[in-house]
Amino acid sequence: MLPSNENxxxxxxxxxxxxxNDFRLKNVSSExxxxxxxxxxxxxxxxxxxxxxxxGENARVAVGSCIGFQxxxxxxxxxxxxxxxxxxxxxxxxxxxxxxxxxxxxLKEHGEQVLNGDFTIFPAIxxxxxxxxxxxxxxxxxxxx
Length: 145
Known about the structure:
By secondary structure, the protein is an alpha+beta fold. About 45% of the residues lie in helices and about 15% in strands. The chain has seven helices and five strands. Helix 3 (about 75-80) runs parallel beside helix 5 (about 95-110).
């Protein structure tokens, strides 16, 4: 059974409360009321979005600055910090709500620099994203839905 938007939001608020407690980000989801499966946190410099994706199957965390939000995926941030993507096979076997504690843990472990407003890692993340996009430009025709 897929989660309701209330269940999703409640679970996000529980798992990501450290953003408010430890980093003084504020839940500004009311600014995005049309996005039922998205919780947005902001400070004066940092923005974090936790969203339900794939029609309730998965969750995603994006980070960026408040000015020109970059929408960098948490997995790309982890790769920039560690050199490797996290083992997502185990994450994707879980339902959307069960993924949230793991995503919160990854953000706590690898996102402190960004959450404190230090964006010096952003050029490295940009290169990771460019490389991934280039890997799709391999001459194979794909159907995009």
